[in-house]
Amino acid sequence: MHGPHDVGGRDGLGPVAPGFLEPDLPNWRYPFEGRMHAVTAMAIARGAFNLDEQRHGIELMPWADYTDSTYYAHWLFSVEKLLHDKGFLTHEEVDARMEELGEPQMAEHPRKPAELSPFAQQMIDVLWAGTPHDLPAQAPPRFAVGDEVVVKNLHDTGHNRLPGYLNRSRGVVTHHYGAHHDPAASAHEQVERPHHLYVVTFAADELWGERTSESFDLAADLFEDYLEPLAVSV
Amino acid sequence: MDWLSMKDVAARINALESLMVEKGLAEHAAVDAVVASFENDMGPLNGARVVVRAWTDPAYQAWLLSDATAAIADMGFTGLQTEHLVAVENTDDVHNVVVCTLCSCYPWTLLGIPPAWFKYPQYRARVVKEPRSVLGEFGVVLGPDVQIKVWDSSAEIRYLVIPQRPAGTDGMSAEELITLVTRNSMVGTDLLTSPQAA
């Protein structure tokens, strides 16, 4: 879906905030950011929801809230919604707990405990193992490197990984990664469905018109069903 | 709930963690452990080790460029968000820069948690449309003949930019070279300078 997260090419956002360019700015500026990140990873490891559902939850945040709020507010919105919708907890419980606990006292830069519980060890193991996303293909690829393709004009309201600015653009397949799990099937059906994944390379003037001020190439990772062969006139 | 209030967001995340612990989805001490791992064990020092090994070992460089996932596994750096890695090399002719326009995809084990500028919409919106102008905001000025290649990591492939080795560093040890490699240079928003010029 082309929700508030789909910002590629939007105008009017202004320069990169100068304060963000300070080289010594910590990546987590507030203790709640790291904790939000960690509990999200845990919910995924426990099977409460998957990464694609978490991303889709962020995409469903109302535009004005998404645009104005901070990054981990997006995560909070999505994780709370998922846990509520799936029956792990309710929004009302979070309201009540928030009231009860009041202003949090969170340690800055917590230390790793000397003894890790089995679950803590499992989480550290997940951090250093990862969760691969590739799958055996179930069908031959439709495209090969060098093929000219055009991105379909897709406006699905569910989860996918097609940036809106690529709709209807013509490009060239420059790599085939094999099959990865399809993000829509993962987000909406919680199944791993193999889907061929390609790098498609676009010219700047194809994306932004002949009056574009800069010349460059843009490569994006796109699933097979987002693409069709460029029609060749005979 | 005021999503725009940092105070409210902090308090609500605290409440959520508390409830998740109660429901068996999280443990407070495990949260500490995960946060500490991200803050101390994952970060650009890992990426810099990969870059310097590529600079100093042509066979490793070739491996990294042909199969980065395996090449970083050899150094113990496989993990969340580096399950599928591609390394792209900056040269005199080509400058690569990475973005995730849809969210904030970033190779965590090699570079850590993404910096704020990578996650907020200004960079994400504009680097796919006017990369030279955006790079200028980072102080990166490229010659007119340098071809820019922007990578929008829209699936689960993560990209690592191999910055150019600065001139005048031939006699430096690997440990000295590692100190020259900045986080931003591995995303494509910095050029490395030789220590004499710095």
TrEMBL record, chain A:
Establish whether keyword NADP is in the entry: no
Descriptive protein name: Nitrile hydratase subunit beta
| Annotated family | Belongs to the nitrile hydratase subunit beta family.
Give the protein's function: NHase catalyzes the hydration of various nitrile compounds to the corresponding amides.
Gene3D superfamilies per the record?
A: 2.30.30.50, Nitrile hydratase, beta subunit
Q: What is its EC number?
A: 4.2.1.84
Q: Which residues form the Nitrile hydratase beta subunit-like N-terminal domain?
A: 1-107
Q: In its keyword annotation, does this UniProt entry include Lyase?
A: yes
Instruction: Identify the domain of life.
Output: Bacteria
Q: Which UniProt keywords apply?
A: Lyase
Q: Which reaction does it catalyse?
A: an aliphatic primary amide = an aliphatic nitrile + H2O
Q: Which residues form the Nitrile hydratase beta subunit domain?
A: 132-229
Q: Which organism is it from?
A: Kineosporia mesophila
Record's InterPro entries? CN_hydtase_beta-like_N (IPR049054), CN_hydtase_beta_C (IPR042262), CN_hydtase_beta_dom_C (IPR024690), Elect_transpt_acc-like_dom_sf (IPR008990), Nitrile_hydratase_bsu (IPR003168)
